[in-house]
Amino acid sequence: MEEALAQAQRAAAAGEVPVGAVIVRSGEVLAAAHNAPRGLSDPTAHAEILALRQAAARLGAERLGECDLWVTLEPCAMCAGAIAHARIRRLYYGASDPKGGAVEHGARLFTQPQTLHRPDIYGGIGACASAALLRRFFAGRRC
């Protein structure tokens, strides 16, 4: 989670919502990314999506069944869907997202019978640090 938090800090420094993601297989980091929808002019450029793309390209496969995803914020519906399609083995996330999350909030995508694949899910990993980073980022934008 430390690397995911470092990625989130890079996002904040770039003016992006501070979310970072890392994909690991057998202890090796395959991909690390942060939110970049503004910088890339791409609404799908969430940290998870970018990390999934990097890992898939590195492995030369669209299925990442032996991989674990670490992300600083509960994934949204788009990212949860991509996680299911990639067949991620384990999902570790930091802060919960009552407004936009789709794992323990909102759509609760992985509890739906139509969901193709359900990773093992571990929430709250590094939640305090992740939430603090998000609070600082948004506090700096409110006036």
Q: What's the helix and strand layout?
A:
Layout: H1 2-13, E1 20-25, E2 28-34, H2 37-40, H3 47-59, E3 68-73, H4 77-86, E4 90-95, E5 120-123, H5 127-139
Parallel strand pairs: 3-4, 4-5
Antiparallel strand pairs: 1-2, 1-3
Helix pairs in contact: 1-5, 3-4
Can you describe what's shown?
The chain is α/β, with parallel strands linked by helices and 143 residues long. 36% of the residues lie in helices and 20% in strands. It has a five-stranded mixed sheet. Helix 1 (2-13) packs parallel to helix 5. The longest helix has 13 residues, at 47-59. The N and C termini lie far apart (31 Å).
Total beta strands: 5
Span between N and C termini? 31 Å
- Radius of gyration in whole Å, from Cα? 14 Å
User: What characteristic shape results from the CA principal axes?
Assistant: globular
Helix content: 25-40%
Q: What percent strand?
A: 15-25%
Q: Count of helical segments?
A: 5
Placed side by side, the strands forming the largest sheet appear as 2-1-3-4-5
String of helices and strands: HEEHHEHEEH
Low-pLDDT stretches:
none
Mean pLDDT across the residues is 96
Class by alpha and beta content? alpha/beta
Largest sheet: 5 strands, mixed
Please describe the structure with a list of short key phrases separated by commas or semicolons.
143 residues, alpha/beta, 5-stranded mixed sheet, 5 helices, 20% strand, globular
